[in-house]
Amino acid sequence: MLVLTRKTGESIHVGDEIEVKVLSIDGDQIKLGISAPKNVDIFRSEIYQLIQDENKNASQLSKDVLDFLKNNKNS
């Protein structure tokens, strides 16, 4: 993990098209601004994890349905 120190108004670049800027710091909260192309998805980590969990559950359900259909094909 790369750790950087930035002050309000300073930014970092990720590749050529993504900029992360520190907008403000208030106690233990930091406001970040992210400039990225529209095709780049940006999520808070807790939301990203929920999406991953839901996708995993959905794919398991699909596998279970396919297995059920396969096993009951001749019934």
Would you mind describing this structure in some detail?
This protein has a three-stranded antiparallel beta sheet with strand order 1-2-3, with no helix packed on it. The protein has two domains: 1-38, no CATH class; 43-75. It contains one helix and three strands, in the order βββα. The radius of gyration is 21 Å and the shape is elongated. The chain is an alpha+beta fold and 75 residues long. Keywords: Bacterial flagellum biogenesis, Cytoplasm, Repressor, RNA-binding, Translation regulation. It holds the Pfam family CsrA. Its main location: cytoplasm. One of its GO terms (molecular function) is mRNA 5'-UTR binding. It comes from Salirhabdus euzebyi.
Total individual domains: 2
Radius of gyration: 21 Å
Identify the overall geometry.
Answer: elongated
Strand order of the largest sheet: 1-2-3
Structural class: alpha+beta
What is the β-strand count?
Answer: 3
Strand content: 25-35%
> How helix-rich are the residues, as a percent range?
25-40%
Low-confidence spans: pLDDT under 50, at least 5 residues?
none
Biggest β-sheet description: 3 strands, antiparallel
Mean pLDDT: 90
Instruction: Quickly count the helices.
Output: 1
Helix and strand sequence? EEEH
Gap between N and C termini, in Å? 55 Å
